[in-house]
Amino acid sequence: MSEITSVERQRLMLFYRRRNAAAWLAHLDTMHLFERALSRAAWPIAFSVEAYNPRPMIVFALPVGVGVETLSDPVEVVICDLDGTFDVKEAVSSLNDKLPPGVKIVGYEWVDEGHKSPMARVKAACYRLEAPGIGKAFSNVYDSGEPILVKRVQKKKEVTVDLRPRLLAVLRSDGDLLELIGGAGSTDHLRVDLLLDALCQYGGLDEEAALGARITRTRVFLDAVHDEKGIIVEMA
Predict the structure, then answer these.
(1) How far is Cα 3 from Cα 87, in angstroms, rounded to an integer?
(2) How many other C-beta atoms are found inside a 10 Å radius of the C-beta of residue 169?
(3) How large is the C-alpha radius of gyration of the chain?
(4) What dihedral do alpha carbons 11, 100, 185, 221 form, nearest 10°?
(5) Which residues of 9-18 are buried (b: 16+ CB within 10 A; e: fewer)?
(6) Counting runs of H as helices and runs of E as strands, what totals does the chain give?
(7) Is the dihedral of CA 13, 19, 24, 29 positive or negative?
(8) pLDDT, tens digit (0-9, with 9 covering 90-100), for 42-58
(9) What is the pLDDT of residue 226?
(10) Most C-beta atoms within 10 A of its C-beta, which of 125, 141, 215, 221?
(11) Whose CA is closest to 180, among 233, 123, 129?
(12) Does residue 21 carry a pLDDT above 60?
């Protein structure tokens, strides 16, 4: 489907890649970047109905941390095509022309109105971590079967978190490469920075290697996730 003929608002999921220097944008900066680029590309974006501060209806499914690259992260926009002339292929091409180097729309799909918001649909995310010795460090920690306990600050209090239940699948762990699927969203979210802390604390990963790790979020799972055998399991 490449053209909207209805005058009603329609939801469109974009999938974007960000690499190299663009990975160091904070989430708020990324939001502003998309707002400006969509405006410059003349997309007919719908606005929220708040009386005092209407905002363009753009929702990132899962905010991405500073320094993390992405291959196909979802962001939903709401189109208000009053004259029925919006052509998505041309619009995406125009948008990519307005985005800075390192950021590109790599795919899109129309979203059924019955779907929940993108943030509510997030179930998991797949990460690739590259750092000297990270595969062995992860095996040292994960293969023990013991809880992977780390401390984090939550609501101004220090709490202890077990990362093991948040590691849903290990896809590869050898040499300088680690690929895994971790929980994401409002519950059981895997923070990669805490995982790196655990690998330094328990697995022997060098702290300099952890600080210089290249982190890429290769996929965000909406509504479904792979189990440990790589089988898609529908989520409630």
Answers:
(1) 5
(2) 17
(3) 20
(4) 70
(5) bbbbbbbbbb
(6) 6, 12
(7) negative
(8) 999 999 876 677 889 99
(9) 52
(10) 125
(11) 129
(12) yes
The reply to whether the predicted model has a pTM over 0.90 is no
| Lookup: tokens for 4 | 């909207």
Chain centre distance of CA 207: 25
What DSSP assignment string belongs to 117-181? Answer: PHHHHEEEEEEEEE-TTHHHHHHHHHTT-S--EEEEEETTEEEEEE-GGGEEEEEEEETTEEEEE
C-alpha separations of 189 from 19, 117, 125 in Å: 23, 18, 9
Q: How far apart are CA 129 and CA 115, in angstroms?
A: 32
Amino acid 32 reads H
What's the CA dihedral at 75, 123, 62, 12 to 10 degrees? 10
| Residues recorded for the chain | 236
Q: Is the pLDDT of residue 7 over 70?
A: no
Per-residue pLDDT band for 229 (boundaries 50, 70, 90) equals low
DSSP H stretches of helix in 41-106: 88-98
